[in-house]
């Protein structure tokens, strides 16, 4: 076979027969029952949402359907027949495609090669590259098939995953938090695509913590909590508040921003950072200046891939430059590497949690050491005190409500949202002067997201300068005192929140991007 | 596409079961081999693995051979954990031996307690420099350390050959390519009357707990491990990738260099062309079989030493070729890497169980 076949028309099913039926699926991990007697139906052409708190077991269930994880017990019926899905290859052969929450791409391969990995071995790369370009353009997910994956932003990697699935013409498409890193336009495009696929009879399982998306897209929702199915709903007939209540079992807390009464000093000063892109697909930073004062939260709005990664690396110290290009509490640190900047009071939460913010195979205790080793008591004379680190990890787990199997759990065993809570917690517990957070609530459930936002607000009111880089305008308007826009490698002036609105920000995002591209 | 697909959760138990399984597979293959050579396998195994341990002298020889293997493997494991693959420990060992011998040769005739420590120091420096060179090449020019360390081994071998057949050749001796026999102050003294085991093994005995502490508890070793497992996390935390390269290569160079000095000033007692029976290469196997774990390496080092001694015994009493020892080493590594592959990956079944309709 040279190229994937044209859409294989799903086998017509007797009316009312589900495409996928799960019966009493259970899966135990050491210390947790991730899925507890889960039963679920997905009809042909149905867009079915799975909702639930972080760690509710959504990803585990999806991985079982996709054959990436084996259930301990229970049955899977596919088009009315019982099947055993031993591995993802079997799932793909059945017509099941999946976009993972944590990407499954090889950084050293290019886009086409990565996609080829999921296709039959004799796929011709040249023809495939053409197909990739076609499909990605058709569905509004622009991709350059020749680019190496390691040079792609998180959003672009997400596109690769989605295109890879679409090329397989699935009958069931599983999307585990696909939109967390997509631009609003791309989300709109994706929804059009999904609706079109559904109208052709493709079933879709859709996981997201963004309730308005679920309301806009999904026909039916299943709610999970603690591994069990706790209910179902028609999301169009529910309000976001009632959906949130079903998910977290209580009302959604609202953020409140107290007035800061302390002394206002510059906590973080960025002084005209210009940086040529270091790879051909990067973004050139042009004369970026910004001051974040103690006691305030400043937001940087904009879509990933507009210089966010480059700016964050320049601020965190993962790339260095002129010494006075970055100042922390007045001290020039632009020439210092990440560790030295942390010594001077910087904390940073990157957008990639697994592999950058945490070492996947290491325990939470060991991952606490990654940045907290400089805390008093955790290391002495070049030796680490893992008992103290364990205590640190335990406190972080308790304070930030990280659902996991204790401090010895490996980072990769945590659900996406819980790992994020752990990393944010670890960084906050270092008593920073400046806290930089990229996409703070990406993948975090609505309840925990509200708590995290409140935590960031509280942190700032203790006199910390907080800089939040996020794609979610709602989030920025909820917690920021001032908002700037980063588009096309340029940063707008930071405007007080009550003097601007979503429209103006949106225009800035478009306008600067346009200005940069001419 | 490949036949193997990665396992999502490789079993910890199997990771530790792999070395015993590899040993078993090696023994089974060896049985076939002995049959083919017309040697009774049971007798061969007896000569190889039991007989050496029946005498005091056997144990002494075992310790003497295990000592450098363990010491070198400890240093290598440190780098391997950080994914820095120094495979030129043999060259670093030879450089250590050369530098230590230089001290012995130029202080010949002098007396003093400082000579031996100076030799060990010189060995450490020689090995360390021979590790630092690839580190510099890697950090400066991004040259693969697997290649540079191996190539530098050949440089060290040639340097040794030149020294012992030229400037450092024993003038009093025949034309053999070897230096003078070191005098008393330049030698480790024997621990027991009549046995070759000498005080150089104390270096290894001290190094094991120290390195164990270093690996388990030190911030440096932690940084190396992070750098090996998740380079972006290391960058994020501000752990320098360059330092990882330097430390991995220099430390393993130093341990190999010390082992070389201990060989020259210990059982060999002079600088010769045949100073090392490939300890630097065998230590790579020792490190892997010991699962890169400081205590595991002690056991695998003893096993590898036994293979060496058994091989010598088998040559004498069964007329087996000396290559049999090498064969054992090679098979052990081969089977271990094979077993490891199945710990981390599973074989893809050709025809997965799928119902017919779904395929259509
Ligand atoms: N490989 C694993 N080993 C051990 N425990 C695991 C593993 N994978 C998941 N778990 C545990 O199973 C539970 C369910 O995890 P899962 O990833 O399915 O949650 P989720 O609903 O997808 O959450 P999120 O919204 O945060 O992504 C969690 O408690 C998690 O810690
Ligand atoms: Mg999940």
Question: Would you kindly provide a written description of the structure presented here, covering whatever features stand out?
Answer:
- The complex is a heterodimer of chains A (518) and B (360).
- Chain A is α/β, with parallel strands linked by helices.
- Chain A has helices spanning 58-65, 88-94, 111-116, 125-138, 154-166, 184-199, 211-217, 240-248, 308-316, 338-343, 364-372, 386-399, 416-428, 446-461, 473-479, 502-517; strands spanning 20-29, 32-42, 47-52, 73-78, 81-83, 96-99, 172-176, 203-207, 220-225, 228-233, 266-275, 285-293, 297-301, 326-328, 331-332, 346-349, 379-380, 383-384, 434-438, 465-469, 482-487, 490-491, 495-496.
- In chain A, the strands form five sheets. In chain A, strands 13, 16, 19, 20, 21, 22 and 23 form a seven-stranded mixed sheet that branches.
- The model of chain A is unreliable at 1-10 (pLDDT under 50).
- Chain A binds chain B through residues 11, 68-69, 78-79, 81, 83-84, 86-87, 89-90, 93-95, 117, 121, 316-318, 337-342, 348, 350, 352, 355-362, 366, 369-371, 373, 379, 382-384, 386, and chain B through 1, 5, 8, 213, 217-220, 222, 225-226, 229-230, 232-233, 235-240, 348-349, 352-355, 357-360.
- Adenosine-5'-triphosphate (ATP) binds at residues 29-30, 32, 34, 52, 54-60, 101, 403-404, 413-418, 443, 445 of chain A.
């Amino acid at each position: 076979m040279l190229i994937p076949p044209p859409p294989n028309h799903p086998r017509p099913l007797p009316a009312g027969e589900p495409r996928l039926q799960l019966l009493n699926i259970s899966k135990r991990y050491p210390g947790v029952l991730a899925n507890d007697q889960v039963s679920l139906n997905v009809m042909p052409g149905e867009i079915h949402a799975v909702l639930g708190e972080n760690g509710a077991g959504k990803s585990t269930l999806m991985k079982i359907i996709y054959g990436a994880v084996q259930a301990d017990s229970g049955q899977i019926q596919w088009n009315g027949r019982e099947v055993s899905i031993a591995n993802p290859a079997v799932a793909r052969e059945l017509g099941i495609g999946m976009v993972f929450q944590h990407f499954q791409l090889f950084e050293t391969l290019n886009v086409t090669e990565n996609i080829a990995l999921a296709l039959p071995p004799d796929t011709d790369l040249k023809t495939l590259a053409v197909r990739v370009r076609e499909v990605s353009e058709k569905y509004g997910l622009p991709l350059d098939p020749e680019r190496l994956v390691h040079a792609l932003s998180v959003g672009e990697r997400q596109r690769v995953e989605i295109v890879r699935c679409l090329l397989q013409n699935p009958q069931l498409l599983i999307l585990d938090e696909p939109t967390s890193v997509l631009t609003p336009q791309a989300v709109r495009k994706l929804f059009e695509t999904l609706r079109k696929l559904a109208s052709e009879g493709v079933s879709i399982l859709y996981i997201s913590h963004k309730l308005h998306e679920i309301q806009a897209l999904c026909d039916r929702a299943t709610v999970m909590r603690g591994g069990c199915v706790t209910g179902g709903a028609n999301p169009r007939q529910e309000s976001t508040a009632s959906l949130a209540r079903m998910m977290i079992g209580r009302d959604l807390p609202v953020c409140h921003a107290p007035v800061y009464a302390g002394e206002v000093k510059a906590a973080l000063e960025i002084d005209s950072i210009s940086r040529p892109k270091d790879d051909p697909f990067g973004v050139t930073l042009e004369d970026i200046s910004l001051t974040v004062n103690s006691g305030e939260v400043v937001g940087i709005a904009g879509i990933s891939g507009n210089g966010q990664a480059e700016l964050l690396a320049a601020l965190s110290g993962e790339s260095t430059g002129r010494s006075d290009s970055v100042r922390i509490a007045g001290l020039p640190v632009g020439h210092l590497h990440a560790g030295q900047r942390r010594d001077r009071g910087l904390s940073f939460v990157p957008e990639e949690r697994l592999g950058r913010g945490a070492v996947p195979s290491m325990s939470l205790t060991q991952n606490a050491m990654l940045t907290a080793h400089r805390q008093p008591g955790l290391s002495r004379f070049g030796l680490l005190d893992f008992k103290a680190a364990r205590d640190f990890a335990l406190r972080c787990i308790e304070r930030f409500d990280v659902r996991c199997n204790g401090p010895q759990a490996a980072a990769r065993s945590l659900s996406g949202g819980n790992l994020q809570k752990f990393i944010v917690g670890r960084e906050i517990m270092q008593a920073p002067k400046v806290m930089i957070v990229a996409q703070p609530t990406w993948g975090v459930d609505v309840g925990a997201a509200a708590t995290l936002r409140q935590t960031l607000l509280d942190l700032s009111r203790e006199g910390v300068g907080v800089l939040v880089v996020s794609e979610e305008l709602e989030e920025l308007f909820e917690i920021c005192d001032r908002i700037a826009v980063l588009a096309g490698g340029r940063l707008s002036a930071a405007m007080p929140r009550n003097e601007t609105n979503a429209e103006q920000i949106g225009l800035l995002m478009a306008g600067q991007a346009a200005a940069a591209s001419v | 596409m490949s036949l193997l697909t990665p396992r999502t959760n490789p079993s910890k138990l199997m990771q530790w079961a792999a070395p015993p399984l590899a040993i078993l597979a090696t023994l089974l293959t060896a049985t076939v081999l002995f049959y083919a050579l017309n040697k009774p396998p049971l007798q061969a195994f007896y000569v190889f693995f039991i007989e050496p341990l029946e005498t005091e002298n056997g144990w002494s020889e075992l310790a003497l051979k295990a000592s450098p293997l363990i010491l070198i493997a400890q240093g290598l494991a440190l780098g391997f954990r950080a994914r820095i693959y120094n495979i030129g420990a043999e060259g670093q060992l030879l450089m250590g031996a050369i530098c230590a011998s230089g001290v012995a040769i130029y202080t010949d005739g002098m007396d003093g307690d400082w000579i031996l420590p100076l030799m060990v120091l010189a060995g450490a420096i020689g090995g360390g420099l021979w590790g630092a060179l690839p580190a510099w090449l890697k950090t400066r020019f991004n040259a693969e350390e697997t290649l540079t360390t191996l190539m530098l081994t050949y440089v060290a071998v040639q340097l040794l050959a030149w020294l012992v057949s030229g400037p450092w050749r024993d003038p009093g001796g025949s034309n053999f390519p070897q230096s003078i026999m070191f005098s008393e102050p330049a030698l480790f003294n024997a621990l027991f009357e009549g046995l070759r085991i000498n005080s150089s093994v104390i270096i290894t005995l001290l190094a094991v707990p120290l390195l164990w502490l270093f690996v388990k508890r030190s911030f440096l070793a932690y940084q190396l491990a992070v750098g090996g497992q998740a380079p972006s996390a290391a960058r994020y935390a501000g752990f320098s990738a360059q330092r990882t390269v330097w430390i991995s290569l220099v430390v393993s160079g130093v341990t190999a260099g010390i082992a070389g000095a201990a060989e020259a000033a210990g059982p060999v007692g002079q600088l010769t062309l045949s100073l090392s029976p490939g300890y630097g290469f065998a230590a790579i196997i020792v490190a892997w079989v010991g699962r890169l774990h400081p205590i595991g390496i002690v056991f695998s080092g003893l096993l590898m030493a036994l293979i060496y001694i058994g091989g010598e015994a088998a040559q004498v009493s069964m007329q087996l070729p000396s290559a049999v020892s090498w064969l054992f080493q090679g098979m052990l590594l081969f089977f271990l890497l094979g077993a490891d592959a199945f710990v981390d990956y599973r074989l893809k079944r050709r025809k997965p169980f799928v119902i017919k309709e779904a395929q259509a």
